[in-house]
Design a protein that fits this description.
Length: 313
């Protein structure tokens, strides 16, 4: 990290919390921190207490698209701009969603697991009715950079694609549907929206029950939007024929969680956006924004509506 900002010379001093806990974070912030780069893992939360400790705080940059590990409202109240890296991993995450949909449709994970176990389940796999992706109706929940890119890729593969978002896009290539209608008419549902107070539990038991029997779920959003227990219940009832999950209510996923042993689930450790290209995009965006803040230029990708001109305290 220090090397990343070496071109700024004596204009910056890069420091880290002495250990990975909230007390050390607050102590480091109270020591005069002006520009803060958040913790992409979410382990160190920039909550209201941490923000209050940072009396000279002027700018927060998240090295991620998600901002659920910072108290955006508290930053806004302090008139501190907060930015993310919107779009940095859009293609990477969208490709993961398409790849996961392929894997679910063709039962790739199930087949791999059983062949590795010494079996040759040719007829059994055929009996699980693998599908061709182009014949599936795809519904995308959330239509930001990731959702719109996923829609483009699914459309290119021949899928009928619809989407839902709070603000319909007049120029969208996909068909807008109200959320309940989208759930009821989608063979594959892709979740690609941020976790907020409004979206927590948005795809719960009631909405999962709207799906056609045998639907598939791909979650590249955040844990808690479709609660793990609700997804598991939909799988066990047969409403969901399969799920590809990159995110979970609690991360890491508990060792004994039933999702780990479910035959029809593809599990991933929150890495849909971890392609080499996406990580390079992220690093460049963080470097450019922090450099702009230090040099008195406007920063990009503000998420809380505060003036993007960073003002030192």
């Amino acid at each position: 990290m220090r090397g990343l900002f070496a071109p700024l010379g004596d204009a910056v001093e890069v420091t880290f919390p002495s250990s990975r806990d909230q007390d050390s974070l607050r102590s480091a912030l109270a020591d005069g921190a002006e520009v803060v780069i958040g913790d992409f893992t979410g382990e160190l939360v920039l909550d209201a207490d941490a923000i209050a400790a940072a009396t000279r705080l002027a700018f927060v940059q998240m090295p991620s698209v998600g901002t659920d590990s910072i108290d955006v409202a508290a930053l806004t109240a302090r008139n501190v701009p907060a930015a993310n890296t919107a779009g940095s991993n859009a293609r990477g995450v969208a490709e993961w969603a398409v790849g996961a949909a392929f894997a679910l449709c063709r039962q790739l994970v199930w087949g791999d697991r059983h062949v590795r176990a010494g079996e040759w389940p040719q007829m059994e796999l055929a009996g699980r009715q693998p599908r061709e992706l182009h014949a599936q109706r795809v519904g995308i929940v959330g239509f930001g950079a990731i959702g719109s890119e996923a829609a483009r890729l699914f459309t290119a593969l021949g899928c009928a694609v619809s989407y839902w978002t709070r603000r319909p896009r007049p120029d969208a290539s996909a068909t807008y549907r109200e959320l309940d209608d989208l759930m009821a008419t989608s063979d594959i549902v892709v979740l690609a929206l941020p976790l907020t107070d409004e979206t927590r539990g948005l795809i719960g038991p009631e909405r999962l029950a709207l799906l056609p029997d045998g639907a598939l779920l791909v979650n590249v959003a955040r844990g808690g939007i479709a609660p793990d227990d609700a997804v598991l219940a939909a799988l066990e009832s047969g409403r969901l024929a399969g799920a590809a999950l990159d995110v979970f209510d609690e991360e890491p996923l508990q060792v004994e969680h039933p999702l780990r042993s479910h035959e029809s689930v593809l599990l991933s450790p929150h890495v849909a956006g971890a392609s080499a290209q996406s990580q390079l995009n992220l690093v460049v965006m963080v470097k450019d924004n922090v450099t702009a803040a230090v040099q008195g230029r406007e920063v990009q990708n503000i998420v809380n509506g505060v003036n993007p001109q960073v003002r030192r305290r």
